[in-house]
Design a protein that fits this description.
Oligomer: single chain
Order of helices and strands: EHEHEHEHEHHEEEHHEEEEEEHHHE
CATH class of the largest domain: Alpha Beta
Radius of gyration: 29 Å
CATH superfamily of the largest domain: PPM-type phosphatase domain
CATH topology of the largest domain: Phosphatase 2c, domain 1
Low-confidence stretches: 380-386
Number of strands: 15
CATH architecture of the largest domain: 4-Layer Sandwich
Shape: elongated
Number of domains: 2
């Protein structure tokens, strides 16, 4: 936790005599910055963010209320404690001070001992809050490493064994998220591919994601048909789901000997199929029902025959539901158009290119949802369509 002597206090008052009193009383306890007006205070706070602001109200130009309001809008000072020191002692003045974001209010003339006590109290509270946030951030970093460690990163062995190529990316909207993907070498003639999206974001979604991906891996080795994998996965997730969470899930099984790909969809975004000489198309027609609501669901099966050079793109709705600053949605049609323009590239290049297209479209707007993309490209090992 930060030592109070290392904390910086910004003193803002247009009366130099008041600043002299505060400096004399606080200089031995904390680092100090001084401002004689509101504009100067905002500039100093942006350049050297303080740990606490002592703020006068009646000042020329920007008054203390406006300075406080603007400090709350600045990322650097949004959570910095602010205490008003003012000769305005009416209830309505104090009320307005708290309404614009102040943490404390002390009227002039003040006793320096009381000022010092309140300063220490506010700084201790901030130091403790900062320590808690840093501890939580550290734990979330570890959680992210564990979560990302559960997802395949190196596909070399699978690619060589099955004559395919993969590209994958997962970018949570927060430190951890609920999107997932997996590739399971279940048998020589059975490569299982899946991608899902847990409802919500953050820690609850990440914990449900871990459970879903662990169960999916086990079931992929036991069951050959994607629709049956989804049915079993749904039963397992629905049997013990006190939080009421759910997951959309797409499962595909690829046979490298015949080029046959079977898919089943549980409420997930429809994958895109790219084939040389043809327009991008949806690989499945039906969305199906998400997993974990109720047991006993059945799922439809779609069969495709893939040729060398064909590409299948699996993704989560963080792609199609990305927004730009004008609140326009990326959408399905833009996805098909961008996928078509990237067709023919390697799976890693396609994945990186599609993510870049989404980023360019978003144009700096905050990421509102987790993003996952898993691209499968068929190499020379797959049979040609008959």
């Amino acid at each position: 936790m930060k030592n109070l002597s290392d904390c910086r206090v910004l003193l803002v008052d247009d009366a130099k005599t008041n600043l002299d009193i505060l400096v004399e009383g606080l200089k031995g306890d904390h680092k100090l910055s001084l401002a004689l007006n509101g504009e100067m205070a905002l500039q100093i706070a942006a350049r050297t963010p303080p740990d606490l602001v002592l703020l006068d109200i009646m000042m020329p130009g920007l008054d203390g209320y406006e300075v406080c309001r603007r400090l709350r809008l600045m990322p650097e000072t949004a959570e910095v404690p602010i205490m008003f020191l003012s000769s305005l002692e009416e209830v309505q003045n104090k009320t307005r001070g708290f309404e614009v974001g102040a943490n404390d209010y002390l009227t002039k003339p003040f006793e320096m001992l009381e000022v010092k006590a309140r300063v220490r109290s506010l700084l201790k509270a901030k130091a403790y809050s900062d320590a808690v946030k840093e501890h939580l951030a550290s734990e979330l970093r570890v959680a992210r490493e564990i979560q990302m460690g559960m997802l395949p990163q190196d596909f070399t062995a699978v690619e060589q064994a099955y004559g395919v190529e993969f590209g994958a990316v997962l970018e949570p909207a927060r430190e951890v998220g609920g999107d997932l993907y997996g590739v399971c070498a279940a048998a020589k003639d059975r490569l299982v591919i899946f991608l899902g999206d847990v409802s919500g974001k953050g820690i609850p979604a990440s914990m449900f994601m871990v459970r879903a991906i662990s169960l999916a891996r086990l079931l992929a080795r036991e069951i050959a048909e994607p629709e049956r994998i989804l049915a079993r996965l749904n039963d397992e997730l629905a049997a013990d789901n006190p939080s009421g969470m759910f997951v959309t899930f797409l499962c595909a099984v690829f046979d490298p000997g015949t080029g046959r790909l079977t898919l089943a969809n549980a409420g997930h975004c429809r994958p895109v199929l790219l084939r040389a000489g043809e327009r991008p198309a949806w690989a499945v027609k039906q969305l199906g029902t998400a997993l974990a609501f109720v047991p006993g669901l059945e799922f439809e099966r779609t069969e495709l025959t893939l040729r060398a050079g064909d590409t299948l793109v699996l993704y989560t709705d963080g792609v199609t539901e990305a927004f730009n600053p004008q609140e326009e949605c990326y959408g399905d049609q833009r996805l098909l158009a961008d996928a078509g323009s990237l067709s023919g590239q390697t799976a890693p290049a396609f994945t990186a290119g599609l993510l870049q297209e989404v980023r360019v479209f978003a144009n700096g707007a905050p990421q509102s949802d987790d993003i996952a993309i898993l691209t499968l490209r068929i190499g020379g090992g797959a049979a040609s369509a008959g």
